[in-house]
């Protein structure tokens, strides 16, 4: 059975296992789902009931807010109505006393009545009458002009005088206005109710009554409602402007959704960046609207808690049911699994034995060692090897370079790596060959052999071409996908079973030739037979002259020339003719012997060949290809050439250093003798010694560590300091005697090196 058959058996067993487990899981889950469905229905009903109860409670609380505020507004309106229908007020407004200037007593009488109203309506913060004709504001205790009254009542507040006058003179019968910034600290607020008198005649402005209600008192009443501790309560006028707010609102305008003409309702929206529930109710006695805004997480807190409990219950039930289901499935499936595994184990064992027996049969068939007690046909049938014809071919596969593949699977043992690699190569070879022919792979003497059964009809050259193409495809695929390189040889096409060993022998001969020349192309025995590249019966080429030439190149460190000699030796021995592996090894040992002689002639190398290159001999003995021989010999030659070249360079460098130091000593002596010369400089020194000035300067600095010009100046300055001890000699004379023609240049150089002028140096020295 092939690897494909083994895969089909494993897949079938796996499918049976999945089907059994799936049926049991569905059965157990069906029992679990029924109570879960009841829990879902219970949650839906509970959620709806809770939402209805929450909305009902919210409506009741909103009604309570409406009742509290409407009572205060009703008191304000009742007070305004009583003042409006006061006889004295009516007489003042709808008469011409202002023109006659006899209204003083009337204002006093009205003040007395207003004082009585203040006592009766103690719940209001204050009230006053605005008389349009006289531009007067009448309060219970005083009457003043409108300007002075603004200063008393609203100076520094949120309402300007112009706005206040517009409200008082407006013909709109009822208005509500919020006024903030009152009191000493500016932290008081009032709700101002303005009630205008019906205008008489063509008056452009109206007389009004204003009643003030303390905002903090109203908000205190609202704040007692616990539900809105985490929400906002807003009092809106007919334009949607916020008059009073309890919560996080900072005023402004709240737009109700269009089309809401009913007296109460609710809607969802966003407030201060949070999804919130809006509920409103319109005042029964005014144009005010009471609006509550509660974040949905607060509004539906109880509903969310119930939902979370139900979710937790369902999740725990589902988790517990799943765990119980898995436990029961595992426990009940264990006997079935043991039977399946036992059956699969037996099948795998039989398959391995069959594969091993088939591989042994193919190996004996290729080597011509068939047991005559059993017919070949019976063996072929027993191992499921169907033959389409009596035409055969043999592919011999050698696993050559596989280090990258082995490194990718370094977590398993080396023996298992080889088995895994052979398994991959066998499957690929069988799959590729079976597209056109029928192939059967077996392990033979550390190699893989593929017995190919070719079609009955067809040209032999076409059959051989199909084998070439299959071998190339296998080689390319494994190199690209698995980084595995193969050496493949192909024997000739044979027409009977008895000739299979001959095809195998031809493939072996081709493989041996390929291992020697290390050619990367797939080699066919027919291409090798009769070619010029036949074994050389006369031995190998390596005369004494070539050996001495190689020794000379190595001794002087000429790497390229030495490697060229090695290449010419290899070309002579493996170009037109090829050597057998034993003869090639003899040549190899001759080359190693040459290198040993060379090392003995190099005095600087003290250790022996086997000490300097401990693994070279082992690697040479393990060589199987010409490329391996060339690589190892070239590595040793290259190392020796590098060593000798370095030694030669060191000797030459020492010689050059001695010459350079002698030259620099002469330059220094010349400077000591000629420092008085005005023209002594780097250029003149270069001309004197026949060198370029730049080269001489660099060489001088490299050896002495001092610049050449600096050395000249330092030499002159040493003589200068000796002459400065004589007080009688002027500086100009001292400078000229020491080679300084210009006095300023002398002073500058002296100060640069000594840190002070020559005069100061001379004075200090004299003091000493």
What would CATH call the homologous superfamily of the domain at 386-528? Reverse transcriptase/Diguanylate cyclase domain
- What spatial form do the alpha-carbon principal axes imply? flat
Radius of gyration: 58 Å
Number of strands: 16
- For the largest sheet, list the strands in their spatial order: 3-2-1-6-5-4
Q: In words, what does this structure look like?
A:
This protein is an alpha+beta fold and 768 residues long. Among the domains are: 386-528, Alpha-Beta Plaits (2-Layer Sandwich), CATH 3.30.70.270; 544-651; 675-767, Homeodomain-like (Arc Repressor Mutant, subunit A). Helix content is 60%, strand content 13%. The strands form 3 sheets. The protein has a 6-stranded antiparallel sheet, with helices on both faces. A 5-stranded antiparallel sheet has the order 8-7-11-10-9. Strand 2 and strand 3 form a beta hairpin. The longest helix has 82 residues, at 3-84. The radius of gyration is 58 Å and the shape is flat. The two termini are 114 Å apart.
């Amino acid at each position: 059975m092939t690897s494909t058959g083994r895969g089909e058996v494993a897949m079938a067993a796996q499918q049976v296992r999945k089907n059994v487990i799936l049926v049991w899981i569905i059965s157990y889950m069906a029992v679990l789902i029924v109570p879960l469905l009841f829990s879902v229905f219970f949650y839906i009903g509970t959620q709806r009931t809770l939402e209805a109860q929450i909305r009902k409670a919210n409506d009741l609380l909103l009604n309570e807010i409406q009742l509290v505020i409407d009572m205060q507004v009703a008191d304000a309106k009742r007070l305004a109505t009583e003042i409006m229908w006061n006889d004295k007020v009516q007489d003042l407004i709808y008469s011409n006393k202002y023109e006659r200037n006899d209204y003083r007593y009337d204002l006093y009488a009205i003040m007395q009545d207003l004082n009585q109203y203040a006592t009766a309506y103690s719940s209001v913060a204050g009230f006053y009458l605005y008389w349009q004709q006289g531009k007067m504001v009448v309060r219970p205790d005083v009457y003043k002009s409108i300007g002075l009254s603004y200063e008393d009542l609203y100076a520094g507040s949120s309402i300007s005088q112009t706005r206040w006058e517009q409200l008082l003179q407006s013909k709109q019968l009822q208005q509500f206005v919020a006024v903030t910034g009152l009191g000493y600290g500016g932290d008081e607020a009032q709700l101002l109710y303005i009630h205008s008198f019906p205008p008489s005649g063509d008056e452009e402005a109206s007389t009004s009554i204003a009643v003030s209600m303390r905002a903090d008192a109203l908000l205190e009443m609202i704040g007692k409602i616990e539900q809105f501790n985490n929400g906002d309560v807003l009092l809106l006028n007919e334009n949607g402007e916020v008059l009073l707010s309890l919560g996080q609102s900072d005023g402004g305008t709240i737009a109700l959704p269009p089309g809401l003409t009913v007296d109460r309702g609710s809607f969802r929206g966003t407030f201060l960046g949070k999804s919130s529930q809006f509920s409103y109710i319109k005042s029964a006695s005014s144009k005010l609207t009471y609006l509550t805004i509660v974040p949905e997480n607060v509004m539906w807190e109880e509903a969310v808690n119930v939902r979370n409990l139900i979710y937790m219950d369902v999740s725990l039930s589902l988790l517990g049911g799943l765990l119980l289901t898995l436990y029961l499935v595992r426990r009940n499936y264990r006997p079935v699994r043991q039977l399946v595994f036992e059956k699969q184990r037996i099948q795998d064992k039989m398959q391995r034995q069959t594969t091993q027996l088939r591989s042994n049969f193919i190996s004996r068939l290729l080597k011509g060692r068939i047991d005559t007690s059993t017919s070949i046909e019976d063996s072929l049938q027993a191992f499921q090897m169907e033959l389409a014809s009596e035409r055969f071919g043999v592919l011999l596969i050698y696993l050559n370079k596989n280090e990258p593949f082995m490194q990718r699977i370094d977590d398993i043992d080396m023996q298992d790596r080889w088995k895994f690699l052979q398994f991959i190569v066998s499957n690929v070879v069988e799959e590729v060959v079976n597209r056109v022919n029928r192939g059967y792979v077996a392990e033979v003497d550390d190699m893989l052999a593929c017995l190919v059964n070719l079609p009955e009809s067809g040209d032999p050259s076409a059959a051989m071409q199909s084998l070439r193409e299959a071998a190339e495809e296998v080689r390319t695929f494994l190199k690209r996908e698995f980084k595995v390189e193969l050496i493949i040889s192909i024997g000739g096409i044979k027409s009977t079973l008895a000739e299979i060993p001959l095809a195998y022998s031809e493939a072996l001969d081709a493989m041996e030739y390929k291992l020697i020349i290390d050619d990367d192309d797939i080699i066919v025995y027919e291409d090798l037979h009769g070619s010029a590249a036949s074994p050389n019966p006369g031995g190998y080429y390596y005369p004494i002259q070539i050996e001495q030439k190689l020794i000379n190149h190595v001794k002087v460190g000429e790497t390229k020339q030495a490697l060229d000699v090695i290449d010419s030796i290899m070309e002579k021995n493996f170009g037109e003719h090829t050597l057998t592996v034993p003869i090639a090894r003899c040549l190899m040992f001759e080359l190693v012997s040459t290198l040993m002689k060379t090392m003995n002639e190099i005095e600087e190398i003290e250790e022996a060949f086997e000490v300097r290159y401990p693994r070279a001999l082992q690697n040479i003995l393990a060589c199987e290809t010409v490329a391996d021989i060339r690589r190892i010999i070239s590595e040793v030659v290259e190392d020796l050439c590098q060593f000798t070249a370095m030694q030669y360079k060191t000797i030459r460098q020492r010689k050059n250093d001695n010459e350079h130091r002698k030259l620099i000593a002469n330059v220094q002596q010349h400077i000591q003798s000629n420092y008085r010369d005005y023209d002594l400089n780097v250029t003149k020194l270069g001309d004197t010694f026949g060198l370029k000035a730049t080269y001489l300067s660099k060489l001088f600095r490299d050896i002495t560590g001092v610049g050449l010009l600096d050395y000249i100046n330092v030499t002159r300055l040493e003589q200068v300091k000796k002459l400065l001890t004589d007080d009688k000699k002027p500086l100009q004379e001292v400078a000229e005697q020491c080679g300084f023609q210009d006095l300023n240049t002398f002073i500058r150089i002296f100060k640069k090196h000594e840190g002070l002028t020559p005069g100061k140096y001379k004075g200090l020295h004299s003091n000493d």
